[in-house]
Amino acid sequence: MKTLVSQLKQLKHGEIKPSAAWLKNNRAVLLSQIKNTVSNQPSKINLENVWNAMALFMPRPVVFNVVRPMAVLLIVSVVATSGWVTGVDAAYNTLPGDWLYPAKRAAEKTQVAMAVMVGANKAETKLHAEFAKRRADETKQILNSNDPGKQAKAQGTVNDLKIEIASVNQKLDEVKNDPNKTLSADVVKDVKQDTDSVKNTLQEVKTSLLSIAAQNTSTTPATDAAVQTVQAVSEVKDLAKDASVKAVEVMVNKHLEGDVSVSVADMKKEINTTLQSSATDAAQSSQSVDKIKDVVNAAKTQAADLSASKTNSATTTAALTQKISEISTATNVAVAQTKTAVVTTDQAVAKAVDSLNKGDLAQAVQAMKDVNTVTKEAEKIYDKTIVSAARLVPVSPVVNAVDSKDIKVVISTSISSTPEIRLIVSPATTTNNSSTIRTEKK
N or C: which end of the chain has fewer CB within 10 A? Predict the structure, then answer.
């Protein structure tokens, strides 16, 4: 026994030098066993688990407020000193089709990937909002250019914008539904401002596209492309509206949980701003549909007079009168619907303002959500109405005019048997404008 104890002590304190042959044989065995038990697929590191594990050995605030930001800074520094980033600054203002645009998009994806990798929820959410704003600005610039392929490129940026806005909505939902997702109210406020910017830019884009779609009553590739892009833009604009409303809801929830990074006065201001913006949208939709109705009704009267004169082809004028009559009926329905939307919106806004005055932020937020739902529907009605009416009657000049004191519609057949509708608009602040569009003979 004494001999065995002595040998064990020697193993404990002595220097062990295994033979080279023994090392080689056992190394081969170990490598073989590892290969057979480890998957060929690369493992994914969940850094959230890493931070939580580190929090077992040091204070949690130190891990998440000191260690994690330092890790982010280190990664950013490594990437920033890499050669491929050299041209990113030069690519910042590029548009789809420019040779440096892929570098711009690659840099954005790298930023998001790094934020995801280190679990920086704040940075990831802000990045998606910022990139959504960039895509909206790019879409506007593309459509204002003389690029012959601008419709296709605009469709591409709108699709990318949709992905970014959807990501913003997803991150806000996560913060709203998961208490472990940390995102302060002041950050959410910044996100809301970006989504509001996206919404406003998309409204300009949609106005431009509707003008293109309303330039010709006949079906052309350009007209069809414009209509398709209008539909895509409207869908993304709805998502931006939802994100803006959701951001306010998250801000209020954070406040109720004790977050004081945004004052009560600022939150009330954000709620009130969102309410007024939605109410304005509903009113504008109603006013625009009302203008369309005036033009269509004027065209309907002229078509009836033309048919009664019997100086033209009875078949042609009867077909034209029937088409205008159908559009008139649909437009009158749209007018009633949008007026109802305005009344509903005004009632919801009054309810929200009353809740704000009483300090009931949660009730005010619910009313704000109701207003958002109604105004989105009103805008859809307007989009459908103008696209439908513009196929036959040139309504765009009237809709885009600030104020029209006189609308004159002339249907002429002096050149051919196919009626031609000429719209004369006399805005109160400008000289007369005219738009002539030949109707399709069916």
Answer: N
